[in-house]
């Protein structure tokens, strides 16, 4: 039986229509819980797709997305928090910055660019590391960023966290950015730069022999992933209205790795599918936790399911393939 396949342009049209229907339907429901849940799910999709580019395309094993999200989130909050309350919440903020107020898209872009800059600085230092060495280094990065955020009390309010962040991240805005991120990563994967990333992933030494600058390619993937993570981090506090140094930590890093492992390390559609699946599953289990009072069972079940999945299907659902879309 011939498998159904559509062209990338048809897939783009389907994606836009599906996103529009989803946003309109959830907005029309008027249910705040569904609106927040859908917004968080779409941010999770963006994070999974960007991590697929960093880890899946190049074969790196970075866990640093939560660190870049934290950077992007705090930078964006500096520019979107109400000017009248900045003096109380962030007394160490320079007067020139305290008087600036930006719209969320612009502030999120600034947050993403600062995260990308940090990604460039850190990426040049750590991309030489292989497999678990890189994982440990990027785990350390999460701890370092959290420690800075905890101790820069005059900017971040430390462990007390920042509350009252304006809820400016509408579902339509997040849906729009989700489409942009997916299309961007899709275009990168199927352009010459994406093929170079995949060549580095398959055999770095052979790629070097063909003139591919492997380190530069890895740094580029690391920076792009860091920038998108920072952008997503900037959006998220404007959905839930609060931010603390521990908002993005090791559990988030674990969930993101679980998503790209389940989806297939290198498949954008797989990452989207797994992000939706795991977000729905985690939310369902969280409700079970609250009903039974057995907290923490969600992470246990996700971890056990991930181990079982790896035993049965070590390359994930789709591996490098993009199902249903004609790629050549």
TrEMBL record:
Localization terms from the record: Cell membrane
The keyword Flavoprotein is annotated on this UniProt entry: no
Main location group: membrane
InterPro entries named in the record: ABC_transp_permease, LivM-like
Keyword flag Transmembrane: yes
Keywords for the protein's UniProt record, in alphabetical order: Cell membrane, Membrane, Plasmid, Transmembrane, Transmembrane helix
CDD domains: TM_PBP1_LivM_like
Membrane topology per record: Multi-pass membrane protein
Segments traversing the membrane: 7-26, 32-51, 63-82, 102-121, 133-149, 169-188, 219-240, 252-280, 292-312
Protein name as annotated: Amino acid/amide ABC transporter membrane protein 2, HAAT family
Organism per entry: Sulfitobacter dubius
């Amino acid at each position: 039986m011939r498998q159904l396949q559509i062209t990338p342009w048809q897939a783009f049209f389907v994606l836009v229509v599906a996103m529009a229907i989803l946003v309109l339907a959830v907005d029309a429901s008027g249910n705040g819980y569904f609106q927040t849940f859908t917004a968080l799910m779409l941010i999770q999709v963006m994070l999974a797709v960007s991590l697929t580019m960093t880890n899946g395309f190049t074969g790196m094993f970075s866990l640093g997305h939560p660190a870049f999200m934290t950077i992007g989130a705090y930078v964006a909050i500096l520019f979107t928090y109400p000017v009248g309350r900045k003096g109380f919440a962030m007394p160490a903020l320079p007067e020139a910055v305290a008087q600036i107020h930006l719209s969320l898209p612009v502030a999120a872009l600034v947050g993403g660019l600062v995260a990308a800059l940090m990604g460039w600085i850190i990426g040049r230092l750590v991309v030489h590391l292989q497999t678990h060495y890189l994982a440990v280094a990027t785990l350390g990065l999460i701890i370092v960023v959290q420690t800075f955020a905890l101790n820069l009390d005059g900017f971040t309010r430390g462990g007390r966290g920042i509350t009252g962040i304006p809820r400016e991240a509408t579902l339509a805005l997040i849906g729009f950015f989700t489409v942009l991120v997916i299309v961007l990563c899709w275009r990168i994967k199927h352009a010459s730069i994406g093929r170079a990333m995949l060549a580095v992933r398959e055999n770095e030494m052979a790629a070097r022999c063909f003139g591919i600058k492997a380190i530069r390619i890895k740094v580029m993937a690391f920076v792009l992933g860091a920038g998108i993570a920072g952008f997503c981090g900037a959006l998220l506090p404007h959905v839930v209205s609060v931010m603390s140094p521990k908002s993005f930590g090791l559990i988030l890093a674990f969930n993101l790795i679980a998503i790209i492992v389940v989806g297939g390390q290198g498949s954008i559609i797989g990452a989207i599918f797994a992000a939706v699946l795991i977000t729905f599953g985690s939310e369902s289990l969280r409700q079970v936790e609250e009903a039974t009072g057995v907290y923490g069972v969600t992470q246990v079940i996700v971890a056990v399911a991930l181990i079982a999945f790896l035993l049965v299907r070590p390359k994930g659902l789709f591996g490098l393939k993009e199902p249903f879309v004609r790629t050549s």
